[in-house]
């Protein structure tokens, strides 16, 4: 309201764009080794054959260079949707708005995220001596399986994984922040926001590990064009038959650890960067 007459819509996009970019790069670079270990634990070929503990930073450049547009797009969409719908609903229904905003942000972010994941995970599990660039991996995927089943293979499984994750993480993050503000005269520090994101991220990561496992198996499958059986339900059913409930939660420990630490870095840096931008530039 205080921005009346100052063209709020023309400036409201820049703070989340800037903060999202900084937060995305920070968390991806910091936690990339854990993500590599998680991917190799979930690989069908097994942890050691997929690379073990060697080359844990393989594919980092791909992620680092694409995390900027991915997280910027997510937070710009999230904040814009949240601001548009929050005035229309009562306070008790705010989590529904946060879920809607998160879903819009995730679907748009997946347009960039899925090809990145394809290249990144194949680099993480590649054990050959020949060097493969991300572009080369994606070109090969396109020539082998086409645009939809190659470059964007696993798009639906990624969305199905990320939407439940965001449905849990973002509302929890907002809830924890609200609880802190209620007990602190409406104030919250970036450190407290980071702690809220840490707890929310760990809980969401644990709950969605089976979906993340299915997405990883689909993206790494070599015989997708031949079998057409690489779908979420049959993949999870096959894993359950082979390894039971424990198999469905393969990689849950490094995944929870990554999102616990990552949530702290991601949301803490996001809030700090957003506040810094608004203080000095968004006037």
From TrEMBL:
Family matches, as SUPFAM superfamilies: Mitochondrial carrier
Keywords: Membrane, Repeat, Transmembrane, Transmembrane helix, Transport
One Pfam family of this chain: Mito_carr
Keyword Transmembrane helix part of the UniProt annotation: yes
KW Cell inner membrane (keyword) present: no
TM ranges: 12-34, 55-76, 248-270
Compartment list: Membrane
Membrane topology qualifier: Multi-pass membrane protein
Each Solcar repeat, start to end: 11-84, 93-179, 188-276
First-listed, main subcellular location of the protein, grouped into a coarse class: membrane
Family: Belongs to the mitochondrial carrier (TC 2.A.29) family.
Protein name (database record): Mitochondrial S-adenosylmethionine carrier protein-like
Origin species: Vanessa tameamea
Lineage of the organism: Eukaryota, Metazoa, Ecdysozoa, Arthropoda, Hexapoda
